[in-house]
Model the fold of this input.
Amino acid sequence: MRRDLGWWALLAPAFLLMTAFYLAPILQVLAISFTEPTPGLGNYERLLTNPAVQRVIGTTLRICLITTLISLALGYALAYVIALASPRARRWWLLGVLVPLWISVLVRAFAWVTLLRRQGLVNQGLQSLGAIEAPLALVWNETGIVIGMVHYMVPYAVLPILGAMREIDPRVLAAARGLGASRGTVFFRVFLPLSAPGLAAAAMLVFIVTLGFYITPAILGGGKTLMAAEWIKLQILDLVRWGLGAMLASVMVVTILVLLGIFSRVVNLRRLFGAGA
Amino acid sequence: MSAAAHALALHRLGKRYGAVAAVDDVSLGVERGEFLTLLGPSGSGKTTILMMIAGFTEPSSGAVRLDGRDITGLPPERRDFGMVFQGYALFPHLTVAENIAFPLRVRGLGRAAREAKVRGALDLVQLAGLAERRPAQLSGGQQQRVALARALVFDPNLLLLDEPLSALDKKLRAELQEELRALHRRIGRTFVNVTHDQEEALSLSDKVAILNHGRLIQIGQPAALYERPATRFVAGFLGTSNFLAGAVMDVAEGGFTLALGATRLVQEGAPPGARALLSLRPEKIALLAPGERATNEVAGHIAGWLYLGAGYALQVATADCGEVRVTLPAWRAPIAPATGLPVRLGWPADAAVVVAEDADAP
Done:
């Protein structure tokens, strides 16, 4: 008992820090959503009645889902190449995947604007090749947001998928071929199911992170396509509607907690499957 | 017998990795229904040979033939061989039944036929109650049996085994050796096994191929290899052996005399030249009682001894034959071993065999 107390005492500073600077503000935001401008569930009622709120949520979910799907597809292909590469080549591939993580998200967003705008490299290149007549609208819309977000999220997709792939025993793949399966069958019946836990983890990770994106949509969306984070900032800082902004923030926190609950189950499933055991 | 009559024939098979020959000009045949073991130390090329038979490794030279048909260029999935991998390589995401059904599923077998065959295979390896378990929930011996059932369920005409028992403890290994042997007799298929365990090779196989440095040294029935090893390597790798090298004297009909210093040994057989090397098994040497005579007699004293339960292993220091290893049963042993005890060793003219020195390693 006394020893337990000692452990708690050691944990106390971290606990107090987290409570004062992290938990308390979040709870306060949650409280504001119920008290401003008038006490009650008025702000949450807007979820069902206000088309603007519904549009923001719809846009956010749509962009996040598209981003997640594209990031998973690209991430899986990249992870597959890296998993099968020689150790030497693997180091270079990994470096290539990780380098973007070290560049400021702001720099990357502006770089994409430069590349994708009407007089940008991409449009001018396509025009000079004669592939298109008029410049494509690649930025300041949903397309631009998705391109920027996918670029940011692909490394987050690659790492868990690669982890799952590298746990696959190559002898199991050889065994499948020895038992009569073609290369394609080995991939779909053995490799893909065995890497599925990594795919699920990557899907959760990418989706949760994209839900809270702020800078990339703000710059590449050009103010025309609003996602949740920018909309919240607009309500609180520009329109001073604290209650409404806090409501959507709370909804997002709860959504992410629910997704994390599912995510932790996926991680447990992976143990259950005995992958790499 | 021509190579075409064998179920499986390796014709001048070779595999080079750069300048290193992992497998060097190996030719051998396995008859239908035979149990062949490739035996050798690590680096002898035995696993490379198995991988070339299975189709996972492409030979640098030579051919693999099945029933006279050249299959050297065929990918592994089209060879129709059952294979038990080292460490079993079961699919961790599938149940035992699904693991066993895998080769049937990829062959497009219908559900009903699949289930019947899986049930039959589970019965064959006595795992009927564990069909719905996952591999991670099974013991090593059970996993081994699942791997065996999976390799046999589609009635392959050839079963390849890559060190199938090496991951098991000693007692379980002995048990599964007997099961594997009985299984082979029961289903009558051709088995090709790879191992570094000489005991396993002797007890399981109809025929053993001994490999060293990528070369086939000797192939034959276990007893023939043990009793008549061709080279020093075979005699030393299969069991233990004493080696006696000397000058050949007095060649006579059916035998010769070998001189080691002042000692003269009478040996059956024909001498290979002016010098000869004999392999003499420790269990063929007797301890002579006072006054007892033998064709070959060597005196010495016990330099060291081990008690092994079933018997004693003695090291006897002699003047001309060096240190000679002798085993004798512990039950009613003629002497109580003690270091320094003088003993006389005796053996008949047909106890030892003439072996060749091995060619130098490449």
